[in-house]
Automatic annotation (TrEMBL), chains A, B:
Mg(2+) 5 binds at D241. Catalyzes the ATP-dependent phosphorylation of thiamine-monophosphate (TMP) to form thiamine-pyrophosphate (TPP), the active form of vitamin B1. The keyword Magnesium applies. One of its GO terms (biological process) is thiamine biosynthetic process. It comes from the Bacteria. Reaction mechanism of ThiL seems to utilize a direct, inline transfer of the gamma-phosphate of ATP to TMP rather than a phosphorylated enzyme intermediate. Mg(2+) 4 binds at D40, T54, D85. Belongs to the thiamine-monophosphate kinase family. Residues 38-150 form the PurM-like N-terminal domain. This is Thiamine-monophosphate kinase. Its EC number is 2.7.4.16. ATP binds at G134, D135, R160, S240.
Length: 331, 331
């Protein structure tokens, strides 16, 4: 332990107060914070008498690797993925809380980088939203827990269960790029023993910046959530586990079938359907709706309780299960 | 991995949907949930146009050990500690979100037990509040992230910064019991190599049920937070890191000194001041206030920016730092 803490800037050596003194100035509580970090709890405005809330854990190993992600990208992604869940309800994101458990030997610069990524993702994807509070804890595994809040501004939340036969199926965001980025990392940025390798990742990053960014620091169309709700979206969700798997959730919740248009899914419809972590928005709209940008029509709502088809042909279950899909010993 | 997952009830073998199907029915979204778990986000009522929010991580190792805590106690404590942070603002707790990262080989019964503890702690400590949402993730280290919400019901939040010279210093809850319980566990429930031992803990539990319960499943006076605010508390906080350390936060934030009355702190004032994790409420009240039960007078607010005294004598800094206070290799 003493060796591990020998660096003067390890968080264990600095202690909680000193760490917070370096991290908190990099964050802003945002326009909805009536009281920010520093007391037992924060106070956040909820003008319409309700708030939207979603929470996610990101764990070193299954969810990210510091050999592949910069701390900045990690903070960015933690914000982006949660903001998209808020947007998928048709709400405007207002605030985040961020709890981090980290090994004592971690350099405080990692937490500073995470804070920078959180701040910049908020500024880019949800201007006015901020980090209102959080927690610091210790763990042998670097872990981020983000909870995000949103304001429905008087609108009815857009659920997964409202799709109706005849509706247009539409999507906003990338389709498959995040999965292609992850496949590149697994294929070309691991060392001989299968472990993530930072220098191989840096080389890959120079060759494939867009696909790696789609995986490591996605830019989901958060603003399009409010636009979709305002345009009358009947159902909506954040596509985190893959288009097919998440679409099936809409189909089951709504008691309908969904038929994808292969021509609209690009050169590799199977990858577009299977690829996880794009964090686009999948929504259904009444026929004839002028789709708000960047939504694109990718299919239609048909009869069939929970049934997915591609140009009318059944789509096998594709996607990702956080428990059964992960082997803790492999990359 | 296959060996570890051979149990039919491991969460990795069951998969996320089956795990949720077993865990969610044990939880209720509560009276403030306008939309509970199952969509991208929950929707929670915030009638007074604001909400209080606090978040905490609990990590296997530094924060709990399954050899010492039952899953039920772990869920109970995760709820209790966060509810107290909400109460310390003078708010009525309304809802929790709970994110859990767990090893794939964990038996689903552990998550069921955690859910039972969460539910019962809510029913006991904050009737009407519920679990509105969450997340399941994988990690080699069992980790719980709880975020709690509260309703100020029109009241001004009670901050740490409002104590005034001449105010009464009061405390509600146990003082030192949780630390005594932890000391017993470290002293008498570890095996020859220093690792937590379940059978030694079970034996200890029979002999010292109250002190172990104070540490493993605390019953903080959550309801007293609203009562304190209604009685005019000028400052308040949750005592998690030890009475002295947390009192110093009030003293610094308020620009005052705090003088403890040794006779009011029981047989061992040093333990009462140092012992962490009791999760009582420390508050200051204008002189002459009829203290709401179970608050007891334990001192007074005096001149002195951030200075703590015990019967007028300086109190050394005592307490707990989550980074510098923990050695990952030791119990």
């Amino acid at each position: 332990m003493e060796d591990a803490l020998s660096a003067a800037t390890s968080i264990g050596r600095l202690g909680e107060d000193a760490v917070l003194a370096r991290v908190l100035p990099r964050l802003a509580p945002g326009e909805s914070a009536l009281l920010g970090a520093g007391d037992d709890a924060a106070v956040v405005a909820a003008a319409d008498g309700r708030f939207v809330v979603t929470t996610d854990l990101m764990v070193h190993g299954p969810d990210f690797r510091l050999a592949w992600s910069t701390p900045y990208e990690l903070g960015w992604k933690a914000a982006a993925t949660n903001l998209t869940d808020v947007a998928a309800m048709g709400a405007r994101p207002t605030a985040l809380t961020v709890a981090i458990a980290a090994p004592p030997e971690l350099d405080v610069a990692v937490l500073e980088g995470i804070a920078d990524g959180l701040r910049e993702a908020l500024a880019c994807l949800a201007p006015g939203a901020g980090v209102v509070g959080g927690d610091l804890s210790v763990s042998t595994v670097l872990t981020l827990a983000v909870t995000a809040f949103g304001d429905l501004e008087g609108r009815t939340p857009v659920l997964r269960s409202g799709a109706r036969v005849g509706d247009v199926l539409a999507h906003a965001g990338t389709r498959g790029d995040a999965a292609r980025g992850l496949a590149l990392l697994f294929g070309e940025a691991r060392d001989g023993s299968g472990e993530p390798d930072a220098s191989l990742a840096a080389e890959l990053r120079r060759r494939e910046p867009e696909l790696l960014a789609a995986q490591l620091a996605p830019r989901p169309p958060v603003f399009a959530g409010v636009a979709a709700a305002a345009a009358g979206a009947t159902a909506m969700l954040d596509v985190s586990d893959g288009l097919a798997r998440d679409a099936r959730r809409v189909a089951v919740a709504s008691g309908v079938g969904l038929d994808f248009d292969a021509a609209a899914l690009g050169a590799d419809p199977r990858l577009a359907l299977a690829g996880a972590e794009d964090h686009g928005l999948l929504a259904t709209f009444p026929p004839g709706t002028a789709l708000p940008a960047p939504f694109e029509r990718i299919g239609r709502v048909v009869d069939g309780h929970g049934r997915l088809t591609l140009d009318g042909e059944p789509v096998a279950a594709l996607g990702w299960d956080p428990y059964s899909g992960w082997d803790g010993r492999a990359g």
